[in-house]
Amino acid sequence: MPTKKYKPTSPGKRWGSGYTFEEITKSTPEKKLTVALRRSGGRNVYGRITARHRGGGHKRKWRIIDFKRDKRDVAASVVAIEYDPNMTARIALLEYADKERRYIICPDGLKVGDRLMSGENAEIKVGNAMPLARIPLGIPICSIELSRGAGAKIARSAGNLAVLMAKEKGLAHVKMPSGEIRLIKEDCYATIGQIGNIEHDAVSIGKAGRSRYLGRRPYSRGVVKNPVDHPMGGGEGKSSGGRHPSSPWGKVSKGLKTRKTKKSDKYIVKRRK
Questions:
Q1: Which residues pair with 140 in a beta bridge?
Q2: Which residue range forms the structural domain that includes residue 232?
Q3: 3-class SS letters over 80-108
Q4: Is residue 221 part of a domain?
Q5: Residue 162: closest CA among 196, 133, 193
Q6: Are residues 152 and 234 in the same domain?
Q7: Are residues 68 and 188 in the same domain?
Q8: Contacts for 111 with CB less than 8 Å, ≥ 6 apart
Q9: pLDDT digit string (tens) for 143-171?
Q10: Is the pTM higher than 0.85?
Q11: Counting runs of H as helices and runs of E as strands, what totals does the chain give?
């Protein structure tokens, strides 16, 4: 989706850019497919802040997305392409033959009026969902399940895609968006195509106010604080901290491996770079 640059009518507008929203065909969400979204402000069930710099932001409604695509072998038509404030990708509103409506993540190139289907007998076509066993090699895929029936977990954000590399012994070799090559069971479902809104990364926020709309509050860097407030604080003049980057509580924040040791490596063929 193309982006636009704003006229420099103010210092904030000078460097900002945004979407043209050319592909959006419906401005209000489907009422039956939305629920109220309660925000935590970064606080846990005890009221303590566990994720800093969160709060405020524009009011939103949560869209119920069909990640499972479990309405098998029933044709559906694309009724509308909509904006979803809760994710980077666009969403498509499908209407099935029995008049039921569902949201799915919109692949690139999907248009109003297109006919889609989910199931083993579905056609090889952008937006259709089928098992990995039925998908030809080398085709871009998205919204991939890691276990059958659990719903899409991989390649769901704007511009993401994975590639089916090979198949053997009931397992498919899938190249992830990160570059990792992973084994996934062939009976897991995936959607043909690449997630839309490809130019999402090209958008420049431009001013602090737009971050506030998104619920992101301002923060201070550790190196500009006093030693009593942060391990990297203090020093005469500008200082890089004099130690490895860390959190205010002294935990290393760059380069520390956080992957759980109990996690199985047997399904990873090649690590990401």
A1: 163
A2: 226-265
A3: EEECCCCCCCCEEEEEECCCCEEEEECEC
A4: no
A5: 193
A6: no
A7: yes
A8: 78, 81
A9: 999 999 999 999 999 999 999 999 999 99
A10: yes
A11: 2, 17
